[in-house]
## 1
Amino acid sequence: NQALPIYYRIHDLIGIGNCNRGLGDVALRRADKSTARERYIESSLIYRNSHSPISMGIIYHRLAYVVETEDEKQQYLQQVRELYLSIGSEDLIATVDELFSKEKPTQ
């Protein structure tokens, strides 16, 4: 929480996104899906502006764990696949599918 204002001050988009993602991870570990979802969505908006497909894939993967419906989950997973395909990372798609099947987000 303390680092977030610093990243905003220096306009470090990836740092802001990473901080929000980390805060979302903490909330998820505390079983606070609502706060996790808010932080992940904030992170996704930041990552989208930074044009980082890897970061977007990671955050969409996390969002798939905190959505309310199976349809939303599948939409996020499809976005992960499309992002990773756009950068030629079929291996990342396989990894995400394997990790997601275990029903726990990873760091």
## 2
Amino acid sequence: LPIYQIPLAVMIVYIYALRGAGDTRAVMLINLVGIAVLRLPVAYLGGKVLNGGLIGAWSGMCVDVLFRMVVAWLYFRSGRWMHTQRWSTVRARAPKSTGAAWWTCGS
């Protein structure tokens, strides 16, 4: 299973590139779907139901990592992450405060 490390490394690079660009919502959704929808059921299926043991469980993890790698790569290639609005930009556009806290927008 050392071949598993290559897609894992590629996935980590793309996921952290998207995080660094400020697109944490997409990263959260990719991870949530990959882990909850793929990793857990496939690992359980391979490990317990099909009596694959540890190799079956690792196979489920590999399916999850491959899925997340491909989805993160496709999302990165789409360029949608470049249009992510950062919190600092949103906060800088808030109306000037009149002494109240910034989240009250001066009212």
